[in-house]
Amino acid sequence: MRHFSQLTPERRNALFHREPVEFTPDSPPGVLAVALGATLYSPATRPSLADDVLKQAARGVVSMVLCLEDSIADAEVSEAEDNLVGQLSQLAGRVPERLAKDALPLLFVRVREHGQITALVRRLGPAVRLLSGFVLPKFTEDHSVPFLEALTEAEAACGRRLFAMPVLESPELLHRESRTEALVGIARTLDKYRERVLALRLGVTDFCAAYGLRRTPEMTAYDVQLVASVIADVVNVLGRADGTGFTVTGPVWEYFRPQERMFKPQLRQSPFLSGRAEDVRAALIEHDLDGLLREIELDRANGLLGKTCIHPSHVAPVHALSVVSHEEFCDATDVLRPERGGGGVLRSAYTNKMNEVKPHRAWAERTLLRGEVFGVAREGVSFVELLAAGVK
């Protein structure tokens, strides 16, 4: 699979200076963590789950979470487990193993209890080949070990690699008096199970719930100071670029239907005045997705990559803004040239900024990895064209 595979080769060639590379569920964890992109959540109770997975894959989704936790009622858990097993077994029968790595997204199951991991792997039998891992809720040092041990047991039982994606959403992380101790404990646990952890996810809705808060469509997670402070501390402790950190993904965007707007639209008109772009701008504003675009940009500026999504309309914006611009590519390439190993400062190829080799090296390495996975846009191609190409 690869990002933007839903586009024709001719369209990709017109948009990309370097096209996205192919990857599979067997690719290195560092590549897969970046490749997650917009991870689309779906309740495991959906009767058409197998069809949904295939449909979203055709639209460019490369990672999905089939949810047995917050998206379903407590009374629906048993029914959801049965449906999940039945639908994945049906999907395995429809997609031969030789095609599954190209035809299906990376699939994860979000569980409630650690016992669900081993039970589901046992019930799935051969269909477990479709799974890339499990999403672990309310991850703390005390709560997490049984989940990680169950994952280890399940992996041994089925004979295939299964990743963990912990969700950081517990009150201990939000409350100021317990945050540092909680983060240090999580870091200890993650380090012990490092090879099993693909990426960390943020449960911002749970953080808001602890104080009875909910952001409006005009506000990003970073406008809610309680939430912004948690994100900063999570990245500070768990997202470092010194080899000890993990990929931390962006929080969910909750809105996908038209709402009454309190503030003026924040999308400038001028970048959208070509081709389908103005239609795309109008659609984004109508559905309040201009706030999503702002939040995606702020996610990356604050050290997050990828995003939890609960609606298919969110996928194209996340992926379009994940493509490396031609200017970013030139800057990163210049910083990492072998002859620059001794450091120094140089003027950017676009002659609009300073590139300082040593301080910008980690940024450049991350940028080129993102460019491999999401591609590098051609000179003059902006996220608007990429977005218009990805919107269906």
TrEMBL record:
Pfam families: C-C_Bond_Lyase (PF15617). This is HpcH/HpaI aldolase/citrate lyase family protein. PANTHER family: CITRATE LYASE SUBUNIT BETA, LYASE BETA SUBUNIT, PUTATIVE (AFU_ORTHOLOGUE AFUA_4G13030)-RELATED. It comes from the Bacteria. Its cofactor is Mg(2+). One of its GO terms (molecular function) is lyase activity. Keywords: Lyase, Magnesium, Metal-binding.
